[in-house]
Amino acid sequence: MKKLARAVVAAILGHQVRRLYKKGQFKVIGVAGSIGKTSTKLAIASVLQNGFRVRYQEGNYNDLVSVPLVFFGQKLPSLFNPLAWMIVFWQNEKQLRSAYPFDVVVVELGSDGPGQIARFKSSLKLEIAVITAITPEHMQSFKTLDNVANEELSVQSFATLMIANKDLCDDKYISGLPQMLTYGIKNQADYTYEKLGIAKKPESLAEQYSVLAAASVAYKLGLQQDKINAAIIGVRPFAGRMQKLAGVNNSTIIDDSYNSSPDAVKMALDELYSISASQKIAVLGNMNELGDYAAQAHEQVGDYCDPKQLEMVVTVGPEANQFLGKAAEAKGCRVERFDNPYKAGEFIRPQVKPGAVILVKGSQNKVFAEETIKSLLANPADSSKLVRQEAHWMDIKRKAFKP
User: What is the 3-state secondary structure (H, E, C) of 116-166?
Assistant: First the structure.
């Protein structure tokens, strides 16, 4: 029943988007890739707003049902609320009778299994597709990195131009593809900070990639150099994505709790390692949906934990506790294991030294590492800045971690 309802809703919304294309003079930017999609989408929207009328959605709207809603500025109702959907369809029809007031629409294209991105072709035509990374994701479905690459790059079938992160996409996947440009920091790429004339880089590597992707897109759309530079200054980290929060005892919390995958954890650890601090603590939760690759992936991250840099590694969740924790201990790290994010935060709080830096990263189910942060905040009111604080998420957490 749910599958049928989704198919019907997606078909109606897709038809409305196709009609919007026929009457609107706007460009669509799509963001795909294994990691960093939402941050990159938001950075692109932020930069382009300095020269264009931009429509986008701040949340994780990235499937066949939610992406069309972005075009019309709609919120996602419950799939089983027919009245709410009738109102959405009716409001969309009203918009279709008026001139479209936006120059650019920025959307995120998600996938957790083969063939899902290709389905967007029925309703989307992208001016530019940004590929943020080709790294392990949803490996219980994809099985191999080649399959991940095939999925993410299937966006080329409905994109005029692709711009891929050269540092996080192996050349064997992107080299020689038609209409492919690259951006990057570590490797030679078509677009770099230097080539685009951008003098000031963001602090974190993850944010550097998002901002560079945004600048590359803005350049291709013809935004003036001075406007690109001015807009970049205003780009800030987003909730759960390398945002820095004030912690207890004058510490700094690096909140990267939105999601987690092997390459993303390593990037976050590199960021932590680059900081000078009296104490560094890494809270590393499960990396979910990795299938048969889960044990190996967690071991690789554990092996990446440096005892010379980290006073303590705190793991949350079964695979992190078993595989990541064991590998980190083998490297010489002190490891503390928890099945509950709240208890992890309560344990860490009294051990935080003045000026400490605490990295918090993890996936959703079985982890919800953002809840660990609450015990560590200098100002409890900052909990409103964390991800997944809406009522339905908090209900899920209460059921998952009963007192």
Answer: CHHHHHHCCCEEEEEECCCCCCCHHHHCCHHHHHHHHHHHHHHEEEEEEEC
**Structure tokens that stand for 302 in this block:** 């554990």
> Two tokens at 68?
């069309």
What is the reported pTM? 0.90
Residues forming beta bridges with residue 131, ordered by sequence position: 32, 164
Sole residue written with tokens 């609320």: 81
Whole-angstrom distance, CA of residue 151 vs CA of residue 135: 12
Closest Cα to residue 109, out of 66, 149, 73, 63?
63
Distances (CA, A) of 304 to 137, 186, 294, 403: 19, 19, 15, 33
Q: Show the tokens assigned to 260.
A: 């987690």
* Cα angle 257, 259, 265; round to 5: 85
Q: Rounded to an integer, what distance in angstroms lies between the CA atom of residue 31 and that of residue 41?
A: 6
Mean per-residue pLDDT pooled into runs of 10, the chain (403 residues): 86 97 93 94 96 92 95 92 95 95 97 95 97 92 95 97 97 94 92 90 85 97 93 80 93 93 92 95 94 93 98 97 98 97 97 97 90 96 91 89 72
Is 379 buried (19+), middle (13-18) or exposed (0-12) by CB count in 10 A?
exposed
213 vs 223: CA distance, rounded Å: 14
The dihedral over CA atoms of 210, 213, 215, 219, expressed in degrees to the nearest 10, equals: -170
Q: What are the phi and psi torsion angles at 182 (to 5°)?
A: -130, 155
What burial class does residue 247 get, using C-beta atoms within 10 Å of its C-beta: 0-12 exposed, 13-18 middle, 19+ buried? Answer: buried
Burial class for 188, CB neighbours closer than 10 Å (0-12, 13-18, 19+): exposed
